[in-house]
Design a protein that fits this description.
Blueprint lengths: L4 E7 L5 H12 L7 E7 L4 H13 L4 E6 L5 H11 L4 E4 L5 E2 L3 H11 L5 E9 L6 E5 L5 H7 L12 E3 H6 L10 H11 L4 E12 L4 H4 L3 H16 L5 H16 L2 H12 L3
Parallel strand pairs: 1-2, 1-4, 2-3, 6-9
Antiparallel strand pairs: 4-8, 5-9, 6-7, 6-8
Length: about 270
């Protein structure tokens, strides 16, 4: 049984053209190819990015649905618009600087074939810097539905760039919303509360690129304030209680305020694992 499916991405001007090219090549080298790639242009792009995008569209114009936004809306609202333009029930998310393993879509489609009630399926990731061979960390996630729903109360149960989900369930859950740092977190919570059946594959299907300044960006009181605002939105859903809310705030405050080298070590060794 073959499913038609879409790939959804949001592209904005800060993306490196070469990273975007590597991402696109990984999608087009899959053992099972999408029949639709929806790319939201989140505001005006650089000339270089427009050129790379035009190159791919020219090769296979019927494969792409380009959704231009006049201004930068942010990831959550860009993806919300993109979902509306997807014509297939199954949608695979992809970040424009990550690399999908060649059998990623094949393995995820097999899970939806095996379980028609499945609504969202992700996997583990390898995080790398520069070249794929330069592995910085791994991020493993819980595998089964009940474990995923418990884990989500404190940390994200899905690596967002790995997920394939049902469009109808995303819309039933209220679609992506604007929530700085936590667009995906909020969606997972809303999908779970809407009755989504969840799964992660016990395999690494995506190589996720991290920038050299990632650990610096996750430090300082300014970052903590943004994190707290996002967690407050999550708590307002009713999915997490008093203890889980304040526990995560305390952990994040400690991590945000520690020296950058120590914070990097915590992310690599404890939070993500090597």
């Amino acid at each position: 049984m073959q499913f038609d499916f879409s790939v959804l991405m949001s592209l904005y001007f800060k993306e490196a053209p070469q990273n975007f090219r590597e991402c696109m090549n990984s999608i087009l080298s899959q053992t099972v190819l999408p029949d639709e790639i929806v790319i939201v242009k989140d505001g005006p792009l650089t000339t270089e990015l427009e050129s790379v995008l035009a190159e791919y569209v020219e090769r296979a114009p019927d494969l792409y649905r380009i959704v231009p936004l006049e201004t930068n809306r942010g990831l959550g609202l860009a993806l919300a618009e993109g979902i509306r333009h997807c014509t297939n029930e199954l949608v695979a998310r992809m970040d424009t600087d990550d690399i999908a393993r060649s059998d990623r879509f094949e393995k995820q489609l097999a899970e939806f074939k095996k379980d028609p009630e499945l609504d969202i399926c992700g996997s583990h990731i390898v995080e790398f810097e520069g070249a794929v061979e330069n592995v910085v960390a791994h991020r493993k996630v819980p595998l089964e539905d009940a474990e995923i729903k418990r884990y989500q109360k404190r940390r994200d149960s899905f690596n967002h760039m790995t997920v394939m989900y049902k469009r109808s369930m995303v819309l039933k859950a209220g679609n992506y919303q604007s929530c700085l740092l936590m667009e995906d977190t909020l969606l997972w919570v809303h999908m779970i509360m809407a009755g989504a059946k969840c799964k992660n594959i016990d395999d690494t299907l995506v190589y996720a690129r991290i920038g050299s300044g990632m650990f610096e960006r996750r430090g300082g009181f300014s970052y903590y304030r943004k994190y707290k605002q996002g967690r407050k939105r999550v708590r307002q859903t009713g999915y997490i209680g008093f203890f889980d809310y304040y526990y995560t705030l305390l952990v994040q405050l400690c991590v945000a305020m520690m020296p950058n080298k120590l914070r990097g070590l915590i992310f690599k060794k404890m939070l993500h694992g090597e």
